[in-house]
């Protein structure tokens, strides 16, 4: 075998019957209960937990293994406040003219508005930046591939891991998000992709009574 490759063996292997049991368990008792939450507790989370969550997200596949992402983890009260102020400024504009009437109507079921108090209450904010190119030590640019797809998959890994640890999250996309690059002093090759508050749910947290599409609507067998 070439030295460029190493043997692979999956750490968990199930027979067919057990695989079905485990898949049903993962769906029914775990992932089906994952929800976006907007009411957070300020209960602290160990920093090592967040670091391991980022390691999990970074295990996602990426185009040519370029790993075109960077995770900014914010716990600073001051920086969270600045992010909230900037985000609410953009969101106020969105809700008062930038969004179409159809968009606003679709959002009514969530009871949202331009106020984003979760940005200062959640113990951590994770801002995911996508890197359209890398900058080598020589200063030269190095191209990345399938950047949106790769970063999107990494975010999916992160959201699933957050849920499995008994924490909650929200995919927040204040638009435009250029202020995050400025506030966090990120380099020119990084562009904010997603902002995810991470924490425990507030004791009085609620979520909209909405349903997911049935399998027949999201899957076609050929």
Q: Could you please describe the fold and organization of this structure?
A:
Helix content is 38%, strand content 14%. It has eight helices and six strands. Strand 3 (133-135) and strand 4 form a beta hairpin. It is globular, with a radius of gyration of 20 Å.
Using brief descriptors, characterize the structure shown:
globular, two-stranded antiparallel ribbon, 6 strands, single chain
What layout of secondary structure does this protein have?
Blueprint: H1 16-28, H2 47-57, E1 69-74, H3 77-98, H4 101-107, H5 118-121, E2 124-131, E3 133-135, E4 141-143, H6 147-164, E5 168-169, H7 178-183, E6 190-199, H8 215-218
Helix pairs in contact: 2-6
Short synopsis of the structure:
Helices cover 38% and strands 14% of the residues.
N- to C-terminal distance: 37 Å
Order of helices and strands: HHEHHHEEEHEHEH
The shape is globular
User: Helix fraction?
Assistant: 25-40%
Query: How big a fraction of the residues is strand?
Result: 5-15%
- Helix segment count? 8
Q: Sketch the major β-sheet.
A: 4 strands, antiparallel
Strand order in space, largest sheet: 1-2-6-5
Q: Please state the oligomeric state of the protein chains shown.
A: single chain
Which ranges are low-confidence, i.e. pLDDT below 50, for 5 or more consecutive residues?
none
Mean pLDDT: 95
Rg (CA only):
20 Å
The chain-level structural class is alpha+beta
